[in-house]
């Protein structure tokens, strides 16, 4: 089963993902951007305010393709639970903002680029915070971590959740870290048990 954590910058994904290592020791933990050279290229573009938004989309997408081939598909073939901190929905939500005015219907375009070859998640936990909280928690140090940008990203995540309500589980990430973690752990226990039945 492929389970992904999504949300705005500062929503607490990495905090949760780290604690989940202890709760689910047999799972494969991974993330996007990855630690590969593709991910390093992505991280360079994040720090570049002038990076071309189309080029940036394809850097992220190349990283995703390699991530699928190297990590996600092999682990799923072994029957593992894979837990990824960010995955394709981050592209659909973030790059659809960055490509607004560059291509028409940017979210549909980005989904279309992925559709022929990606492996969609079985379940996506959306850590829900408002853009101001996300920007403040993340430190607002790069072009994505700004409340105005994150407000547009948030609307894109809402569109994705409206389109696939059965895949997403929304968790209130303004709760204490302990309460957020408890909600996420109980969600994962439930969805993995349901999958085993
Ligand atoms: N539930 C919470 N309440 C208050 N602060 C939190 C909570 N969860 C995480 N934080 C704090 O917010 C900051 C950002 O958390 P974290 O790095 O886990 O978020 P993230 O979603 O992975 O962010 P990014 O996408 O920018 O990497 C950290 O300082 C973390 O300690
Ligand atoms: C995978 C992915 C990420 N982003 C953005 C979101 C963040 O601002 C950064 C890095 O992610 P992290 O969780 O803070 O390490 O990149 C994006 O725009 N598109 C993506 O596909």
Itemize the secondary structure elements and their pairings:
Elements: E1 2-7, H1 13-23, E2 28-31, H2 37-46, H3 53-77, E3 82-85, H4 88-98, H5 106-114, E4 123-128, H6 131-138, H7 147-163, E5 168-172, H8 177-196
Parallel strand pairs: 1-3, 1-4, 2-3, 4-5
Helix pairs in contact: 1-8, 2-3, 3-4, 4-5, 4-7, 6-7
Bound molecules: adenosine-5'-triphosphate and ligand LXEULUCI.
Residues 9, 32-33, 46, 60, 86, 90-91, 94-95, 144 line the site of the ligand Cc1cn([C@H]2C[C@H](O)[C@@H](COP(=O)(O)O)O2)c(=O)[nH]c1=O.
Task: Write up what this structure looks like.
The structure is a single chain. This protein has 197 residues and is α/β, with parallel strands linked by helices. It has one domain: 3-Layer(aba) Sandwich (Rossmann fold). The chain has eight helices and five strands. It has a five-stranded parallel sheet, with helices on both faces. The two termini are 13 Å apart. The mean pLDDT is 97. The structure holds adenosine-5'-triphosphate and ligand LXEULUCI. Residues 7, 9-15, 137-138, 173, 175-177, 180 line the site of adenosine-5'-triphosphate (ATP).
Index terms:
197 residues, alpha/beta, Rossmann fold, 5-stranded parallel β-sheet, 8 helices, globular, binds adenosine-5'-triphosphate, binds ligand LXEULUCI
Give a short overview:
Belongs to the thymidylate kinase family. It catalyses: dTMP + ATP = dTDP + ADP. With 197 residues, the chain is of the alpha/beta class.
